Amino acid sequence: MPSKRAKKWRIKTSPDLWHPRLEALHELSSSLIAQTYTSIDQLYEYVARILDENGIPANQRLLYRSFVEELWRLRERYSGKTLAIEGGAIVVKYWLYGGERKILYSIARQIGLTPDYLDKVLEEASQMTITEAVKQAVTELYFDEEGVVTWDGPAYGTDEIDISAMFNTPLTGTKRRRYAVFLDFSDIYEDPNWLVCKVRVKIKIDGINYRTIDRRDVRREEVSPEYEQGIPIDIPPISRDAAITLQFDTALESVRQIPYQYVMWYMEL
Questions:
Q1: What is the Cα–Cα distance from 204 to 208, expressed in whole angstroms?
Q2: How confident is the model over 189-203, as pLDDT tens digits?
Q3: pTM recorded for the entire structure
Q4: Based on C-alpha coordinates, what's the Rg of the chain?
Q5: Residue spans in the chain of domains classed CATH 1.20.58
Q6: Are 218 and 196 a contacting pair, CB within 8 Å?
Q7: What is the pLDDT of residues 154-181, one digit of tens each?
Q8: Beta strand pairing status for 255-266 and 242-248?
Q9: How far is the C-alpha of 251 from the C-alpha of 191, rounded, in Å?
Q10: If you ran DSSP here, which 8-state letter would residue 111 be given?
Q11: Which of 36, 174, 192, 263 maximizes the CB count within 10 A of its CB?
Q12: In the chain, where does the domain assigned CATH 2.60.120.380 lie?
């Protein structure tokens, strides 16, 4: 016969009690997610307009996307003097990465950092640390690449394929680094055969075997022209070989092209 504690646990975990709680939590979570997505999407749209106005090419846009994401996270956590100090440090970092001062200022204004304040921050940074040699060394801390991968649908079938191995420069190495990768599925969408593509990010955690650290299912309707046809993939700081694999639920009926672009940040030389 169950003990009193066992009976009490059974009562407390009754579905009749938990359903209203979970329903209430779902409403709260949905509201918070909606606020978060709206907030960051508004910043993305603002940054896109600024970059368009200044004629920034596609292979440089990831720098500013990463910049605004750092500022957004900062704004969600801090305010007042702490926000100003930490925000100024981020502006200096991306200025050293090669970001244009005017554009960085326009984006930073969205979290309340004024040009006058940022001028002072950058002037102090210049006097303390920056020479032309140092600037050159810092700009060499990141690398970007773009290209096109040919996806042979009939040959690959429904196999899991390492698409990053087909990049001009694969995502391999033993130095600490991180990646921001974008895949263009506009041509893939035109193939009517598939419904779902599994995207996996893998790392050789033990130095020998690839292990999946992130995965997502991309549905065909999600990359239709009325939605976003780019697939963003963030790979966290690593010091091992990395790989991105694709696996379609149904073999594509023809050969398709997947343009890609990525930025790699070196965390050590």
A1: 6
A2: 999 999 999 999 999
A3: 0.54
A4: 23
A5: 36-138
A6: yes
A7: 999 999 999 999 999 999 988 888 999 9
A8: unpaired
A9: 10
A10: G
A11: 263
A12: 142-266
